[in-house]
Design brief:
By secondary structure, the protein is mainly alpha-helical. The chain has 10 helices and no strands. 63% of the residues lie in helices and 0% in strands. The protein has a domain of 117 residues: Tetracycline Repressor, domain 2.
């Protein structure tokens, strides 16, 4: 069963599907989540705290998705295709993640502002982590690359420093290629077309990836 915190985050995220963040009211989030307003403020402190928590959760979910795509057995190239596909599909389905990856927030989304200097630390550990800041696009890409490279390098030659370096470079290429489709999609191709192009660029002739996670599966 979801915790009150998760239910509140889900409710706030759902509200963004119908209205801009500036129109989302804390009282409405609490009411729709069937949680007291006091609980909402206990968890997040303020609307800005709620925004930071939403964005932090999207970053964490993305990184878990990268790890899940690489956890499946298969050649490194196919696993990297799965990571790229996960990135493209997830960014298309999740506007907050797209903004995290590109740095383009727009007026409808909860662009996270840093916690006020000198503010009292949140009582909830998850909120303290969110208040500490969310990754920039470059930082999130670097975290995904490092996690992916560590998993790829666990193969038979993982102890070889050159293998680890090759894994990092391959992961960087896969993620940057995926990000290029997130940033510069023409609007003429479907999500399936973008995934196919990523797959062909990274692993020509590999065929459909059996390990690709769905955008809503994390």
């Amino acid at each position: 069963m979801p915790t009150a915190r998760e239910t509140l985050l889900d409710t706030a995220l759902a509200a963004l599907g119908t209205q801009p963040w500036s129109a989302v009211r804390m009282i409405d989030v609490a009411t729709r989540a069937r949680v007291s307003r006091q609980t909402l403020y206990n968890e997040f402190g303020s609307k800005e705290g709620l925004a930071r928590a939403l964005v932090r959760r999207e970053a964490d979910r993305y990184l878990r998705g990268v790890e899940a795509a690489l956890a499946e057995p298969g050649p490194p190239a196919r696993r990297l295709v799965a990571v790229a596909e996960w990135t493209v599909a997830s960014a298309a389905a999740r506007p907050v993640l797209r903004a995290l990856l590109t740095g383009s927030w727009g007026e409808r989304l909860p662009a996270p502002r840093p916690a006020r200097a000198g503010a009292r630390a949140a009582a909830v550990p998850e909120q303290r982590r969110a208040d500490a800041g969310v990754p920039s696009p470059g930082e999130l890409l670097g975290q995904a690359r490092d996690r992916a490279a560590a998993l790829i390098a666990r193969g038979p030659d993982g102890g070889d420093p050159s293998c680890r370096g090759d894994a990092a470079r391959s992961c960087e290429l896969a993620l940057r290629l995926a990000l290029s489709f997130v940033v510069a999609a023409t609007g003429r191709e479907s999500e399936g077309d973008r995934v196919r192009l990523v797959r062909e660029a990274l692993a020509p002739g590999a065929g459909p990836s059996a390990t690709t996670p769905t955008a809503g599966g994390r």
